[in-house]
Amino acid sequence: MIKVNTEISGEYAIKNDTVIIANDAFYGCKSLTKVIIPDTVINIGMNAFYNCKAMTNVEIGNSVETIGKWSFNNCVGLTNITIPNNVIQIESEAFLNCTALSSIQFEEDSNIRYIESSVFNGTAYYNEATNWESGILYAGPCLVKCNTTT
Question: What phi and psi values does residue 131 have, to the nearest 5 degrees?
Answer without folding.
Answer: -85, -10
